[in-house]
Protein: DUF1540 domain-containing protein
Organism: Brevibacillus agri
Amino acid sequence: MPEVRCSVANCEYWAQGNLCSADEIMVEIDAHANANTKEEFAGEYGQNTGHKDHATKSSETCCLTFKPKKSEKK
């Protein structure tokens, strides 16, 4: 798997050095950003539907793998 850089430090998969530690990465176009998918189904979403989209620039894409870190209990 290629090295994936991420600066979203409040993500469950964020790792030291701004790296993503997720086993799979799901990237979608913004038009599908609010699709009813959960992070545990992200890999299946892209593989099973067979849909393909086109983006003309990176700002039209988003990472659906994001999962907020669990709050530390005090």
Q: What stands out?
A: The radius of gyration is 13 Å.
